């Protein structure tokens, strides 16, 4: 009897373990497969490549995780990234000091995010529609502002954000790590974090228990806009060029990272650790497809199938 | 008697009709044409207009140039305007391949022949489409790269968005010339970077890791090649020959700085010239090809503008 109970407890633990870390296994399995297929995969340079390439999507996905936790969605991140980076680059070329130009760019990102925050929290416009509108307007403004031309040749101290490194670690990775840690702290150790989960779990209960749901909603969109602007600066620094067409489709990469990472689109459930693994999984996948020289016409098929399989393994752990 | 008169008069009438319908002698006829451009707020289209204007003057054609300011509604009223002025032909560079279709149909109903330049139309009856020959451009890029590498080495191809005509044609031209003229050059990697600079950077970072020995890169557009150059610089890999496509401003600057070996340039003035020439030929009753390819030009450090 005691043994049976022990056995039962063990299976339950195993189930819980798989439920929490299933996506990690999918991720490790993919890495193992790729390291067998290409001897270049597990080299220091390549690991840095993957981390650096995942960092921009990762930073955007931190904001996206919080929005999705409140049952929302933000489709405007790619366009906000583009608009704030071209404005920053233009100010830099106009001779504004780097910290000031960056401050303006980040404030612009936060302001754009705030506008969808207001639309969602005050005017009760569905997030999908509000952020779709902001996406179109921001993209249009970025194209009009630059007349469709990229802004190239930026100050070296600005490019340091994207192209520099802190010791052996490239700056984008350092910044992404800081953002993930700060976001994790916010979600797990602060009242605001608790409110975000409570709001997504049950908005009515959250409001009745005295949480200012409007403020929380406003905050998550503003933060997402801010992070998109930061990601845009890293990207511009990496390219030495700000592009009005930058960030096309980044919203889907970010949403994919969040959802693959186990955050529920129904809100209230998920964490940034999952998002980190989700972003890395997408990064590894893109990297692996290039290393193995998969024909471009097949790339999307392979990508879709691998993501579906990764989720399947995770769901299997969840429902069994 | 009455019958004979009727017969004679009818014969005369028929004769007049036949002669008036017969191809007009070139000396007797001067044409008026409309050229509707998507925008004149872009050097590319200004050059196109200048080419068309010069050719029109040469051929004695009256050319009415109209600017749609990238607005399909403005374009529609421009074309309506030309129809009511009863021009002999309309040359249109559409703002949008779909939005232009109703206007073309209107011109078709008014029996005014329509020619499209640079961007095509997805409907209506078009006599000819005049546009850059991307296959030839891909070939020129391949020839340039192959010769500069001394006909040997390892080459990477960065492809455009899969399924677009530009990616397909430029890739076809490049691969055709590589397999035909440069058997000792190996294409070691062939990956899409979606015509995007950021993707060009990250995809080429990955390829640099996978391929320790790369001598040359061809990208289906300049954005991707500029990203690849950034990746090679960051990784400290030197001695790679980069060739792009489109001759955008950043690329021309990179050619001047010696970072980019060459880029393939479209020739908008030729588009304008060929547009007017084709329309004149067609109005004079000659048959013209459905698709008129415009030659491209390789820009390197010797001829960079």
Describe this structure in words.
The complex is a heterodimer of chains A (320) and B (305). By secondary structure, chain A is an all-alpha fold. Chain A has a single domain, classed as ABC transporter involved in vitamin B12 uptake, BtuC, CATH 1.10.3470. Chain A is 78% helix and 2% strand. Chain A is built from 13 helices and 4 strands. Chain A has a two-stranded antiparallel sheet with strand order 1-4. In chain A, strands 2-3 form a two-stranded antiparallel sheet. In chain A, a hairpin with a 2-residue loop joins strand 2 and strand 3. The two termini of chain A are 23 Å apart. Chain B has 2 domains: 123 residues, Rossmann fold, CATH 3.40.50; 132 residues, Rossmann fold, CATH 3.40.50.2300. Chain B contains 10 helices and 12 strands. Chain B has a 6-stranded parallel sheet, sandwiched between helices. Chain B has a 6-stranded mixed sheet with strand order 7-6-8-9-10-12, with helices on both faces. In chain B, helix 2 runs parallel beside helix 10 and helix 7 crosses helix 8. Chain B is elongated, with a radius of gyration of 25 Å. Chain B starts with a helix and ends in a 5-residue tail after the last strand. Classes of the chains: A mainly alpha (320), B alpha/beta (305).
């Amino acid at each position: 009897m005691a043994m049976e109970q022990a056995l039962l407890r063990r299976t339950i633990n195993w189930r819980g373990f798989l439920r929490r870390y299933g996506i990690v296994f999918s991720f490790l399995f993919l890495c193992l497969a790729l390291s067998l297929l290409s001897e270049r995969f597990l080299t220091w340079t390549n690991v840095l490549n993957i981390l650096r390439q995942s960092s921009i999507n990762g930073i955007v996905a931190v904001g996206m995780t919080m929005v999705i936790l409140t049952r929302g969605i933000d489709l405007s991140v790619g366009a906000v990234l583009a608009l704030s980076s071209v404005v920053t680059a233009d100010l830099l070329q106009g001779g504004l000091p780097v910290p000031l130009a960056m401050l303006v760019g980040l404030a612009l990102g936060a302001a754009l995010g705030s506008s969808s925050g207001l639309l969602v929290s005050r005017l009760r416009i569905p997030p999908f529609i509000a952020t779709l509108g902001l996406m179109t307007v921001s993209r249009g403004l970025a194209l009009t502002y630059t007349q469709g031309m990229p802004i190239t040749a930026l100050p070296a101290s600005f490019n340091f954000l994207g192209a520099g490194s802190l010791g052996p670690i490239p700056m984008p990775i350092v910044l992404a790590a800081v953002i993930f840690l700060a976001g994790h702290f916010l979600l797990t150790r602060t009242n605001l974090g608790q409110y975000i989960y409570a709001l997504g779990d049950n908005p009515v209960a959250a409001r009745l228990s005295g949480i200012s749901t409007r403020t929380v909603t406003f905050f998550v969109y503003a933060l997402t806009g801010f992070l998109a602007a930061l990601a845009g600066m890293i990207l511009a620094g990496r390219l030495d060029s700000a592009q009005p067409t930058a960030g096309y489709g980044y919203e889907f990469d970010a949403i994919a990272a969040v959802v693959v990472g186990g955050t529920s689109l129904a809100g209230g459930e998920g964490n940034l650790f999952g998002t980190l693994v989700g972003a890395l999984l997408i990064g590894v996948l893109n990297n692996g497809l290039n290393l193995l020289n998969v024909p471009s016409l097949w790339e999307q098929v392979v990508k879709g199938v691998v993501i579906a399989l990764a989720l399947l393994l995770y769901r299997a752990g969840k429902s069994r | 008697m009455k019958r004979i008169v009727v017969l004679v008069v009818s014969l005369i009438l028929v004769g007049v009709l036949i002669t008036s319908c017969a191809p007009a002698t070139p000396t007797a006829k001067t044409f008026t044409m409309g050229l509707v451009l998507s925008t004149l707020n872009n050097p590319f289209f200004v050059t196109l207009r200048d080419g068309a204007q010069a050719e029109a003057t040469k051929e004695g054609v009256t050319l009415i140039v109209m600017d749609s300011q990238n607005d399909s509604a403005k374009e529609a009223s421009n074309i309506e305007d030309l129809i009511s002025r009863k021009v002999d032909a309309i040359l249109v560079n559409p703002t949008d391949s779909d939005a232009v279709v109703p206007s073309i149909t209107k011109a078709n109903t008014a029996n005014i022949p329509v020619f499209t330049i640079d961007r095509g139309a997805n409907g209506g009856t078009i006599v000819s489409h005049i546009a850059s020959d991307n296959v030839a451009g891909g070939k020129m890029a391949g020839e340039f790269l192959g010769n500069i590498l001394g006909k040997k080495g390892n080459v990477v191809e960065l492809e455009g968005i899969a399924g677009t005509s530009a990616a397909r044609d430029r890739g076809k031209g490049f691969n055709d010339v590589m397999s035909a003229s440069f058997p000792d050059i190996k294409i070691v990697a062939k990956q899409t970077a979606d015509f995007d600079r950021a993707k060009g950077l990250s995809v080429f970072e990955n390829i640099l890791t996978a391929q320790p020995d790369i001598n040359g890169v061809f990208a289906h557009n300049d954005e991707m090649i500029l990203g690849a150059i950034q990746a090679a610089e960051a990784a400290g890999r030197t001695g790679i020959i980069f060739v792009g496509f489109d001759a955008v401003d950043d690329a021309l600057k990179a050619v001047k700085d010696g970072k980019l070996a060459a880029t393939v340039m479209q020739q908008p003035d030729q588009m304008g010239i060929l547009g007017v020439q084709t329309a004149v030929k067609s109005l004079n009753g000659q048959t013209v090809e459905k698709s008129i390819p415009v030659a491209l030009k390789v820009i390197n450090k010797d001829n960079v503008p």
